[in-house]
Write a structure and sequence with these properties.
single chain; 695 residues; alpha+beta; 59% helix
């Protein structure tokens, strides 16, 4: 019976060999296309492996070694087949959703015992909400890349062979006999060079590439069967072979230590000038090969060891400060340069004794092209704006959904899944909740996530996990929003300009509260440029189609100036000892505490121009700097006839209301001399709190 089963397995795999390979490669290429976005493609700085993943080559080699792949296939067949049979049984009994937690735990246990490459594959699946439901994703995030170390004698022989040394001790002296860390790909020793420098020596496991190639070959075969299973059992048209190929390219880069060394140098170049905050270990190129990596040893403590970190750095706030630096660094990596560390987990980070953040491992790096960076910010805007139709359209343009797919059900799914989680204040919003709700939609509907988005999901999820371990109240979205807001306000990409227009001027009406919130958030970012924001707004408002918007703008600004003017008058009168009539009579319709939305936005703009986002004292220097910023903006307003006319209309309306109010007040005083009562003013009267911060 067993013999027949093995024969059937052999025949099935032989029949499944590669006629589909070229088709799968074409699907991958088509899926990754971002059809309607800008076509500029800067060079990808992520280092490629010297030996690249090549499924064609692997198949030609392994089909000549049937005993190897058949043995490994049998090792995987029984546990995987048993698990799939359980899923089929659950679906037949209509209890699959109810048993997901149980099955997810079983899958975690199963993968943990199937070897390094399968464990790595399971970790990659933990960032694929388009493939697995949330219960599985949560469980797979618990996968640990820890395996027993291989013997040190063998590791030293591998170093000698790889570096061409006669004796290990000609160059190195081990400071610790056993490895200080061991993982599925390699293990790390602490050593000293002949010149006295202490280094971290990373040595790859024996036959690592050979083992990985075999597992990828077998997983690829299973992926073909899995694709058919998904179509029949779940109605999901998924290309699992492409998923394996994406993972194969990733792990081949990770097992090439020369590629990791190039990534480390590129990363260090990225942070030149920030050495007082970020540290990247020096790489010893002459002692590095594809299987041996020699880098500077860095002493430090783990970021998540709070008490030890405070003692080590002498700073009680070190953890929160370094987590903030980590989040800001990751954001700038993703959205500025595009080259980012895709696996910033606690084991890859150290806090040094001088309070710097040190990155250790550079095997898993990723890159976002400019169009992809823009699309991420655009997606954030659509989420904030609750514009789920635009979000679904963006997903089509990004290649997440096939062109021609009916997106109406997807829009309804987004509308059902996201509003309640998005209603939380920015200070309480977390990546996990938003990603979980989006993941539910992506699993339910025909999404296929490209590698760059999977890397972002992994990076943000790991970042938030580290941040919360250090500070349970830390929220990445709250920490990141100022930078995103500043980029949104100042980036000239056409997609972001359209998104910002929809955000601030929805349905031809100014969205003052959103504008105020954006300004308040953006002001705390060094990326913020008030003149760039003003230039954009002036351009948007001078367009011919903006006529109704300008009319609404005139109404709102006239109300705002009227309200602020009344506030100034009340403050001045109070300082002079005059008791003016109560607001309902004096404010001509404005109720106390009900400021027009545009008023708060004007005050926010005032604070930014003065560089006084916290509302503190204003000095002559800040006023002078504000005047310099305002001058080109005022000139641009004057040079635009439509805006000049609108501004004159605003001032005229506000002046008319002020004059009318003053006349009524004078008549009231004439007919009732007691209407205005003069109170005694103390000699040292406090300065009035003018709404614009200066008299």
């Amino acid at each position: 019976m067993a013999r027949r089963l093995l024969a059937a397995l052999f025949i099935t795999q032989a029949a499944a060999l590669l006629p589909a390979t070229r088709r799968h490669r074409a699907l991958v290429k088509g899926r990754a296309a971002l059809t309607d976005l800008p076509t500029q493609q800067p060079e990808n700085p992520v280092a490629e492996a010297e030996i690249r993943y090549d499924p064609d080559k692997a198949q030609k080699l392994l089909t000549r070694q049937p005993r190897r792949w058949l043995t490994r296939n049998v090792q995987l067949f029984f546990p995987l087949a048993g698990f799939i049979a359980s899923i089929i049984s659950d679906r037949a009994m209509n209890c699959e959703p109810q048993r997901r937690e149980q099955r997810a735990s079983e899958l975690l246990e199963l993968i943990s015992n199937l070897g390094p490459a399968v464990i790595k594959g399971g970790q990659a699946l933990a960032s694929r909400p388009d493939l697995l439901p949330a219960e599985y994703l949560r469980k797979l995030q618990e996968l640990q890349d820890r395996v027993p170390a291989f013997p040190t004698d063998e590791a030293l022989r591998r170093v000698e062979a790889s570096l061409g040394l006669r004796n290990f001790t000609d160059v190195f002296t081990l400071l610790v006999d056993e490895p200080v860390a061991a993982a599925s790909i390699g293990q790390v020793y602490k050593a000293r060079l002949r010149n006295g420098k202490v280094v971290a020596l990373k040595v790859q496991r024996p036959d690592c590439e050979r083992v990985v190639a075999l597992d990828l070959f077998v997983l690829r075969w299973w992926a073909r069967l899995g694709t058919s299973f998904f179509v029949r059992a779940f109605g999901r048209d998924l290309d699992l072979v492409s998923v394996v190929d994406d993972f194969g390219a990733l792990i081949y880069r990770e097992i090439d230590y020369r590629a990791e060394a190039r990534n480390a140098r590129q990363f260090a170049k990225l942070y030149q000038g920030y050495e007082n905050t970020i540290r990247v270990p020096e790489i010893y190129d002459e002692l590095t090969t594809s299987t041996v990596l020699t880098m500077e040893w860095v002493d430090g403590t783990r970021l998540v060891d709070g008490a030890e970190l405070a003692v080590y750095t002498g700073d009680d706030k070190a953890g929160t400060r370094l987590v903030d630096a980590l989040v800001q660094c990751s954001l700038r990596q993703m959205l500025d340069s595009g080259f980012f560390h895709a696996d910033p987990h606690a084991g890859n980070l150290l806090a040094t004794d001088d309070g710097r953040l040190c990155y250790l491992d550079f095997g898993m790096m990723s890159y976002l092209e400019e169009r992809q960076r823009v699309s991420i910010i655009e997606a954030v805007v659509h989420l904030v704006n609750r514009d789920f139709e635009a979000l679904a359209d963006l997903y089509v343009r990004m290649g997440f959904i096939k062109a021609g797919t009916d997106v109406k059900p997807i829009v309804r799914g987004l509308q059902d899944a996201l509003p309640d989680v998005l209603d939380a204040p920015v200070s309480e919003l977390n990546v996990k909740n938003v990603a979980s709700r989006l993941g539910d939609v992506m699993y339910t509907f025909p999404f296929a996530l490209p590698p760059f988005y999977v890397a972002i999901i992994r990076c943000l999820g790991v970042l938030e996990g580290v941040a919360i371990q250090v500070d349970p109240g830390f929220r990445i979205v709250n920490d990141a929003y100022p930078y995103v807001a500043a980029r949104l306000l100042t980036d000239e990409a056409p997609e972001l300009r359209r998104a910002l227009t929809n955000l601030l001027f929805k349905d031809q009406k100014p969205q003052w509260r959103r504008f105020e919130a954006l300004l308040n958030r953006a002001s705390s970012s060094s990326e913020y440029d008030a003149s760039a924001v003003a230039a954009y707004l002036i351009t948007a408002l001078t367009e011919e189609s903006a006529g109704p918007l300008r009319e609404k703008l005139v109404d709102d600004l006239a109300d705002a100036l009227d309200y602020l003017g009344v506030g100034v008058a009340l403050d001045v009168a109070s300082a002079a000892g005059l008791d003016l009539p109560e607001p309902p009579d004096f404010l001509n319709g404005h109720q106390e505490g009900e400021a027009p939305p545009a008023a708060a936005a004007l005050l926010a703009a005032r604070d930014f121009l003065l560089g006084d986002g916290e509302g503190g004292d204003v000095d002559i220097g800040s006023v002078t700097r504000a005047a310099r910023k305002v001058q080109p903006v005022a000139q641009s307003l004057y040079d635009a006839p439509s805006l000049r006319a609108a501004l004159i209309e605003v001032l005229a309306r506000a002046s008319e209301r002020a004059a009318s109010r003053a006349i009524r007040l004078a008549l009231k005083a004439a007919t009732d001399p007691g209407a205005l009562r003069v109170e005694e003013v103390e000699e040292e009267a406090p300065a009035p709190d003018y709404p614009f911060g200066y008299s």
